[in-house]
Amino acid sequence: MQITVQIKLLPTPMQIRLLDKTMLTYIRAVNEIVGDFLEDSTLKPTSKTIKAQLPSALKNQTIQDAKSVFRKYSKQLQTEAKKEVSNQKEVKVPTLKKPVAIWNNQNYSIESNRISIPVWHENKSTRLLIDCILTDYQIDLLRNKLGTLRITRKSGKYMAQIAVSREEAQPIANGQTVGVDLGLKVPAVAAAEDGKVRFFGNGRQNKFVKRKFRSRRISMGKAKKPKAIKTLNDKEQRWMRDKDHKVSRQIIEFAKENNASVIRLEKLSGIRQTARTSRKNEKNLHTWSFYRLAQFIEYKAKLEGIRVEYVDPGYTGQLCPLCHTRNHARDRRYKCACGYSTHRDIVGAMNIISAPLADGNSLPA
After folding, report:
1. Under 8 Å CB-to-CB from 18, ≥6 apart: which residues?
2. Residue 300 contacts by C-beta under 8 Å, 6 or more apart in sequence?
3. Domain 176-354 has what CATH class?
4. Rounded to whole angstroms, what are the CA distances from 30 to 12, 26, 64?
5. Distance (Å, rounded) from C-alpha 212 to C-alpha 207?
6. Per-residue pLDDT averaged across 26-32, rounded?
7. From CA 238, how far away is CA 8, in angstroms rounded?
8. Which of 131, 255, 301, 317 could form a disulfide with 10 if both were Cys (CB 3.0 to 4.6 A apart)?
9. Which residues, 6+ apart, have CB-to-CB distance to 138 below 8 Å?
10. Where do the domains of the chain lie?
11. How far apart are CA 284 and CA 208, in angstroms?
12. What is the pLDDT, as a whole number, of residue 218?
């Protein structure tokens, strides 16, 4: 399984200038090679034929990227050619615009909290040692087989993206089953067969932050600042993705602590149409990616040898775990006539453990 490790870089002002120059030269070189392929698709460029001021390692990578871009363009041409003349669309030549540079795994190294990469400076190849922020989880992932290193700039911040190949663990046998209920007010609740329960995330904080983003977007819209809105949207998506990563990682840790061999989730198809929520929470429901969180849980579980199953969500939040009577919870409190009482999301997680499996895979929510 391949994972992308996102690392925040802390370059000095001098390193920023060299990174910006390297990324700009890199995308120009790729676009020029694509243009050469358009004139003669049989060309076989080498690092010697490329005039860009880049180390040979980066020159070779520009060739690989240009070939990939040209293949996608050729495939789109063939697809459009098969269509009727009236339905054909003009296929534009793709060009790289966003700052980026890519190094293969033989041309960079990670030393403590620094990434070492070759760049072109003063008419020769020289190495930069760039400080970075690495968590213990990332350090553990980087012990596996490393792939390419991709450095990009977004909103003035420099990020390194390293492809890591990690083998899936052997499936755990004869372990517990853990049910996980996903929601808005409580992002996730996990319940094990032995009765252990844990809550994950902070729904109130998530709601507050999303309301702030929404308010700022409205202000920027009135001020007619579309670029600022796009930047803000990207920032919000990164924040949401980070929250999903953290919650999914915590759920996997809970499963490992309780010797789980199976994690069960509700099938998410149609959740936006069937979920009951208040009017003030409706906007959050339609902007939060439940599917992404489920996918994060699934791929992290595979790495630990834990199987993920999807179950039918019907009445999981209403059936009493003891007497199986259907009851409607009042706000977050669930109470049954048999005397059983608890948090409504705990009821959902417990019922997910024994719910019937759903057919097929979960669909985007």
Report:
1. 119, 121, 128
2. 248, 249, 252
3. alpha beta
4. 27, 6, 9
5. 9
6. 95
7. 13
8. 131
9. 5, 7
10. 2-165, 176-354
11. 10
12. 92
Whole-angstrom Cα distance, residue 267 to residue 89? 37
- Amino acid letter, 156: G
**Residue 236 in tokens:** 């919000």
Residue 365: per-residue pLDDT: 42
CA distance 248 to 299: 10
Give Dmax over CA atoms of the chain in angstroms.
81
- Write down the pTM of the prediction: 0.72
Q: What is the pLDDT of residues 267-278, one digit of tens each?
A: 876 454 444 455
Indicate the pLDDT class of residue 285, thresholds 50, 70 and 90: very low
pLDDT tens digits, 154-176: 878 899 999 999 887 888 888 99
Residue type, position 318, single letter? Q
Q: Give the whole-angstrom CA distance, residue 21 versus residue 53.
A: 10
- Which residue's structure tokens are 């909290």? 113
